[in-house]
Design a protein that fits this description.
The chain has 154 residues and is α+β, with helices and mostly antiparallel strands. Helix content is 23%, strand content 38%. A hairpin with a 7-residue loop joins β7 and β8.
């Protein structure tokens, strides 16, 4: 379970890596399940022969699959103390920098870039996130992600 920090403790973390997630395997089964849910059955994700013939030399995970795993990874990062709900607010930017080969493992690195109080009482947390591919120097993706957090009401 992720730690809980006060708003002041979070503000003290600005510009720092607040956490690194566990490793997530990009298994063929996970890639196939994602293809089925999103109806994106491009052969470079699912067909070994097509993957081998591609510029990547093997099948690869969908970029959006890698991106979607941020939703699981963020649960491993510190939460605001008293947080009742968190909402995905969106991305200011996303770049897919390296393909993730089937069977590779990835993990997220989260740097807290900004935290601000909104007029509706929620807090906007902005993270600079990179997703590392085990054994590679270039990340799979880099993004600036915004999340809206609401604290429990007294």
């Amino acid at each position: 379970m992720a730690s809980q920090l006060t708003v002041e403790q979070m503000q003290a973390q600005l510009g720092q890596v607040v956490g690194v997630s566990r490793w997530y395997e990009m298994s063929a089964a996970r890639i196939k399940a994602f293809a089925d849910v999103t109806e994106d059955w491009q052969p470079i994700h699912l067909d070994d022969a097509a993957g081998a013939a591609s510029p990547f030399g093997s099948t690869i995970a969908h970029g959006f699959l890698t991106l979607s795993l941020l939703s699981a990874m963020v649960y491993e990062m510190p939460a605001l103390q008293g947080e009742a709900i968190g909402v995905n607010y969106g991305f200011e930017r996303v770049r897919f920098l390296s393909p993730v080969p089937t069977g590779a493992r990835v993990r997220g690195h989260f740097t807290l870039a900004e935290i601000s109080l909104r007029a509706d009482g929620g807090y906007m947390l902005t993270y600079d996130v990179s997703v590392e591919i085990e054994g590679q120097t270039k990340p799979a993706l880099a993004a600036r992600w915004l999340g809206l957090r609401y604290l429990e009401r007294a």
